[in-house]
Write a structure and sequence with these properties.
By secondary structure, the chain is mainly α. Helix content is about 75%, strand content about 10%.
């Protein structure tokens, strides 16, 4: 599976390089709409591939952030369950020590 992932990433990299080489012409990027540009003209000259790559990068960052926020409730629940399991393990260890019998029938059932 790791090999497939590396091959796929290599293909994506090749496509990005080819698109970058094919779209090297300079374009004017207006940072404000025409109505607001009269108040404060903000435009820059950049290669077309740079506009595309930055747009893709910003989209990926926004997507990862939204996914991370969406999964927050699952991570919180997993950490709660981990704390509960640790608490139960401590309680089981204390019961084993207090009874002095590690082969207690109830504890043997719980540990299996």
């Amino acid at each position: 599976m790791r090999t497939v992932k590396i091959i796929l990433l290599a293909l994506i990299l090749v496509v990005i390089v080819v698109l970058s080489l094919a779209n090297r012409e300079i374009v004017t990027l207006n940072l404000l709409p025409e109505g607001l540009a009269s108040l404060m003209p903000v435009s820059i000259q950049v290669p077309l591939f740079l506009v595309s790559l930055v747009s893709i990068l910003v989209g990926m960052i926004i997507g990862y952030l939204l996914e991370w926020l969406r999964e927050h409730k699952h991570r919180r629940r997993a950490s709660e369950k981990a704390r509960e399991a640790a608490r139960l393990e401590r309680e089981m260890r204390q019961l084993r020590q207090s009874t002095g019998k590690p082969e207690d029938e109830v504890l043997a059932l719980v540990s299996n």
